[in-house]
Amino acid sequence: MKEIMVHKKAPRDATFEDMSNDLSEAEQSQQCRWAVFDLDYTNDKGQAKTKIIMISWAPDTAKVKQKMVHASSQDAFKKALGEGISKNFQFSEMADLSTADIIKELNTLDKF
Questions:
Q1: pTM of the model
Q2: For 68-97, how does the pLDDT look when each residue is reduced to its tens digit (9 = 90+)?
Q3: What pLDDT shows up at residue 22?
Q4: Which of 2, 34, 45, 79 is deepest in the core (most CB within 10 A)?
Q5: What ranges in 1-112 are assigned the alpha helix state H?
Q6: How far apart are CA 65 and CA 44, in angstroms?
């Protein structure tokens, strides 16, 4: 991999489930991916919030070399995105990719 390429640009109204399905397809094709998602949620205080999150997806089915390149390229990718990312999450299994857990983590950021 010599460059980071955009695999898909989803419409603004794409859901978290849509993104999860895309990551599931990447898992089936044994591919690592990054996803940048604009997550709308309600925090612990009942306030509507929007946070841009980044998901580093390295499924167990991906080849070791690809996972290594993916991991070593992540900082360059984050730097290219700029300052807008609220939180980076790393997942390797679909069972771990949960909006409830992500929102729980984002709620801890709101407390500071």
A1: 0.85
A2: 999 989 888 888 888 889 999 999 999 989
A3: 92
A4: 34
A5: 16-28, 64-81, 99-110
A6: 40
Q: 10 Å Cβ neighbour count for 56? A: 18
The SS3 call for residue 54 is strand
One-letter amino acid at 71 equals A
Structure tokens at 11: 């419409």
The two tokens of residue 2 are 């010599």
Check if the beta carbon of residue 26 is closer than 8 Å to that of residue 33.
Answer: yes
pLDDT tens readout for residues 35-69:
999 999 998 889 999 999 999 999 999 999 999 99
Contacts of 2 (CB under 8 A, 6+ apart): none
What are the residues whose beta carbons fall under 8 Å from the beta carbon of 66, sequence distance 6 or more? 1, 30, 31, 32
User: Residue 84 CA to chain centroid, in angstroms?
Assistant: 14
User: Considering only CA atoms, which of 43, 19, 38 is closest in space to residue 105?
Assistant: 43
One-letter amino acid for residue 94 of the chain: M
Residue 14 CA to residue 108 CA, distance in Å, equals: 25
One-letter amino acid for residue 23 of the chain: L
